[in-house]
Amino acid sequence: DFYKKESMPSNVLSQFGYHLFNAGPNMVVPIRKSWTTFDAYLGEMKPKYRRRAIKTVKKGSKIRRQTLTLEDVVQYQEDIFKLYCEVVIKAKFKMFFLSPGYFTSLKKHLKDSFECIGYFLDNSLIGFTTRIISNAVMEGYTHGLLYNYNKKYELYQNILLDDVREAIEAHSSSVYTGRTSIAMKSSFGAIPKELVCYIRLSDGHTNHLIKLLLFFIKPANEYYRHPFKENIK
User: What is the pLDDT of residues 142-189, one digit of tens each?
Assistant: First the structure.
């Protein structure tokens, strides 16, 4: 992945048989200086979006959040992988599939720069999310959840709002939330940062044919919402 302003990789990678395609923007929430608290963030929203966010937080209030230590990640490794699979199998397009020990390895190597948060209901793990912190930027990384709990507790929406809350408290400059659910993420303040992607398959014949397949890969055409009051910058 490269952001569109980074034009140099295109000239270099094309020489090595990489094909360019558009997989949609990364949705980024810029953290404003005026957001000294989560309530301040909510206060700058238009009433419709503020009510929606408050309702989401209320629905998720019965869920217990727990920041997992390395020992916890090892303990729940199998459950975390199952929750990850619940999400990834629903993806229309996926270029890779993580291994069960992936999150344990990340925690071992990245230490405090990697966070894994478990979402528990009656002591059962029903969801998780991960964050990678680099300087003042927070990336909402891979997550997983049980979809039969998602509607009642708005689990995924709470994960996104928790990322915003944590970024505000950590004085981060922005939160990267990924490509999917563009309309919903924009209702929480995320804006698109355009990405281009490059892919090359090891087999030469297949790599030639993949160019035809990539023609049919188009990002979802979703409406961007504008949740903040117009007179607040």
Answer: 999 999 999 999 999 999 999 999 999 999 999 999 888 889 999 999
User: Mean pLDDT highest for which of 31-40, 93-102, 217-226?
Assistant: 31-40
Amino acid occupying residue 201: L
Q: How many residues are listed for the chain in this entry?
A: 233
**How crowded is the C-beta side of 184, counted as CA atoms within 13 Å?**
13
14-21 long-range CB contacts below 8 Å, 24 or more apart? 16/200, 17/200, 17/204, 17/207, 18/198, 18/199, 18/200, 19/198, 19/199, 19/200, 19/207, 19/210, 19/211, 19/214, 20/196, 20/197, 20/198, 21/196, 21/197, 21/198, 21/199, 21/214, 21/217
Sign of CA dihedral 30, 33, 34, 38: positive
DSSP symbols for 171-219: T-SEEE--SS-HHHHHTTT-EEE-EEEEE--SSHHHHHHHHHHHTT---
